[in-house]
């Protein structure tokens, strides 16, 4: 396990850190958003209780670096001792001794970054990208696991991919019938931002109110991403940039000479626009 942060931009609900826990056997990954590093150990205690209840198993060994928030302090060490848990720590400036979770951080951040680039969501939603990245990674086959998924090893059944949707895509969520009149809209315009924990639905961002909610009745448009800038959809050759040839005056030598320079000027302008477009890409 390990913590990451602080990030320069807080999430929409004030988180700047996250705690990553990786199961050494199944490579199952859990990520928890944190507002401060001091919240890490209480979250770890909750995770230990979760494992004991849901998987009927008790954690025997915990491995981390020498961070105080992860058990190196005296009070936290006393807790591990009282529970019979061995706390293994890496040597100073030796992150490779905690390599599994360090590599998992790299994998999580790369996937999170890809989701951000695809959706172009504001940075305050990086926490939702991270949680979605964790959800996806736990359901991807791994060579280390003989091309099984962490989900399959943990729950002894294959994951369900039918609920997967393009992160950041446009969607419409059905409004509740008891709160609408005959002439009110039947759906609200939203953006898909993830999968909620312990709920069979989709986590959505209302584009009008910027509030996050969970809904089951959703219509997706997975090829449309509302937060992408309009410049990214402009064609390479805009329709209003034409090269005009003055055919009616081409028989006049002076007119041919002036038309020649107009054509050259239009070509130069087109080349400049192409160069600017390529630089923007």
Automatic annotation (TrEMBL):
GO terms for molecular function: nucleic acid binding. GO terms for biological process: DNA integration. Residues 1-158 form the Integrase catalytic domain. This is Putative ovule protein. It comes from Solanum chacoense.
